[in-house]
Design a protein that fits this description.
The protein has 255 residues and is mainly alpha-helical. The protein has helices spanning 27-30, 36-45, 51-63, 72-81, 87-95, 105-119, 124-134, 153-166, 173-185, 195-205, 210-234; strands at 13-16, 19-22, 25-26. α5 (87-95) packs across α11 (210-234), α6 (105-119) runs antiparallel to α7 (124-134) and α8 (153-166) packs parallel to α10 (195-205).
């Protein structure tokens, strides 16, 4: 190694005393000219997103900010706050619960859409069959255990995608794929698209890699985690567990 600066290499930031450039643009030219959503896209992908597409990205981020204390990530963050940890610790507690089962469906739905796009809509049934076998009958992005008959966030997001497709901002092909999946799944009973399926459509239309889509969801949900953490801190409760103190649990060990 001829130069210690070669220890790290990055295309993201260049910096020296008195100078900061992000993705090749001086920070002072970004401040006041780029929205936060546009900066998220620029920093993560290295690409500038136009204002109309950024509205789709923003819609996806807004839609997924919160789902109440019933969501494990929110509940864990609130419980941690009652234990006296700092706000950043509670944020990390909540975010760290976002995994394959709680928080991963958007990435999985995006992978499903891309697979169907590669093999063609005429092969959708075989792809769905494979994914049902892999996920114990579950298709990521469709159906909801709480919102029945429909997740109120999904139709609005798809409406925005379809409007953008009509304006030529996106292809609209992934919206068609998702709607066809919904139709195939709902032959016996309604299994509508949920928030994960709808945001996955947006991320697919924007050309977002599936793992990055999960990261964007984490950014979105971190807002809800922060809000709930801060609210809990104002309530001045101590060590609030997952159940009320008078509510016991079932012991299944030896008598």
């Amino acid at each position: 190694m001829s130069d210690v600066s070669e220890w790290w290499s990055t295309n993201i930031i260049e910096m020296e005393p008195g100078s900061i450039s992000l993705r090749g643009t001086p920070i002072e030219n970004l401040i006041g000219n780029k929205s936060f959503v546009e900066m998220i896209w620029l920093m993560t992908t290295g690409e500038h997103i136009d204002s109309k597409k950024s509205l789709l990205l923003e819609a996806a981020l807004v839609a997924a900010v919160d789902h109440g204390p019933q969501a494990p990530s929110i509940a864990a963050a609130r419980m941690s706050a009652t234990c006296g940890v700092d706000i950043n610790n509670s944020l990390a507690t909540g975010i760290n619960l976002l995994g394959d089962i709680h928080g991963g469906a958007g990435q999985q739905a995006l992978e499903l859409y891309q697979e169907i796009d590669e093999v063609g809509l005429e092969n959708i049934e075989s792809v769905l069959k494979k994914h049902k076998e892999l996920n114990q009958g579950y298709i990521p992005g469709f159906g909801h255990r709480f919102h029945k008959p429909i997740d109120p966030r999904a139709p609005r997001l798809i409406e925005l995608v379809n409007d953008a497709a009509e304006d030529g901002q996106v292809s609209g092909k992934f919206s068609k794929i998702a709607c066809e999946i919904e139709r195939k799944l709902s032959t016996k009973k309604p299994i509508p698209m949920n928030i994960d399926g709808a945001t996955a459509v947006i991320y697919a239309e924007l050309g977002c890699p599936p793992p990055l889509a999960r990261g964007l969801f984490c950014i979105s949900r971190s807002i809800g985690i922060l809000a709930h953490t801060w609210e809990q801190m104002q309530q001045d409760e101590r060590i609030k567990g997952p159940t009320p103190p008078t509510y016991g649990w079932k012991y299944k060990g030896d008598e």
